[in-house]
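User: Sequence for NAD(P)H-quinone dehydrogenase below. Tokens please.
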Amino acid sequence: MTMNPDFAAPHIAVLGGGPGGYEAAAVAAALGAQVTLVERAGLGGSAVLTDVVPSKTLIATSDLMTRVEEAAALGIRLGGPGASAQAASDQPITRDDLHADLRVVNERLLGLARQQSEDIRAGLAAQGVRIVMGSGRLADSGALEVATAEGTERIEADAVIVAVGAHPRALPTARPDGERILNWAQIYSLEELPEELIVVGSGVTGAEFASAYNGLGSKVTLISSRDRVLPGSDTDGAELLEKVFERRGVRVLSRSRAEAVERTEGGVVVTLGDGTQVTGSHCLVCVGSIPNTAGIGLEEAGVALTESGHVKVDGVSRTTATNVYAAGDCTGVLALASVAAMQGRIAVAHIMGDHVTPLNLGHVASNIFTSPEIASVGVSEDDVTSGRIAGDVVTLRLKSNARAKMRNTTDGFIKIISRKGSGTVIGAVVMGSNASELIFALALAVEQKLHVDDVANTYAVYPSLSGSLAEAARRLHVHL
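Assistant: Structure tokens for NAD(P)H-quinone dehydrogenase:
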């Protein structure tokens, strides 16, 4: 990178070391800025230490158990090569043959989280970022005050990026105790698999944990205040997931609001709005998050907050205070690590006078890590059916995909949405095994405004799940 010799490197202070903070720090350092990053718990923030990395590692174990349990359909039996064919055929693998040692599972996932955190720290240090461990607050629009183990330090800066994240929201009548009533940051302290887990909340987090613990062997009840799981997501995907849940033994209580959660002598009891009580061994409360913006000097420094406590930002991550920017979950824009990182990068570009493209949430690819996964990007089918967008929609079920049949993973579909008239790809949903990987090709098509024929005419490996991407695109071809 060639720097202008007359360029005066600014000092950028970053408060918070999650994806929004550490990405901003890395990019700023690469552009020649002097960077100080303040973090109170560990690099990577909750995304790495208590949320995304641990939960998806747990899900990886659960997915493997589910695949092994379903291996009988692929001809796999218990017994070594010396067993007779008849003896082997009498011993298909069942749930009783599998056991998840939750202590080992949780030790592994927390170890991976710590390792990832240290990798982030090492990468930032190699780039020259100064890392200060401590609790910081905004002293004014150009300074941070940090309480460290050695005392209090004042950090003067030309610009400040606030990336303080969020923490699990608790219900007043369902206070987590870390033993029987848990939030998503506490559940990794368990050493034994919950016999009967009640999950309160059917959004992304609740659905993912319900799917994961069902796969690990818990009896799961999912309580949803809405008429279905995953409200706001693709309707076809949510409905199919409910069918998979039913097949795998997950009990879904729709239109049931949890009013209170209490400990009993041997477990928990959840009281619903109609007075019905649901009993279990443990309860996981997944009812959203609260930004970590209270008591850190934001409003005193002129940073406006919403009624929910989120930092108000514009398209280039600016707050209402001069030279103060914000990124990540504390902004309430979209609670995804990829969005937080993009907000951080945009903030740095604006501070440094680099090329800036305002945040575009219309092109964000996201994934729900249930089994099967549900990934999406761009406009939804609801946008089309409601008339908000003029588009054409094609849905191709994985039941017809040769590779899915071979792997016995036919729950799912490919859905592509093109703009009516032009044929440009404007949205997509992928449901199935590895949907989080498959969606990238369609996200690229949305971002680069590719025509459905561009996707259709790209060679796909046969057999492959990605072959259905090309096939779905071919069905959107318009004969001229």
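The mean pLDDT is 94.
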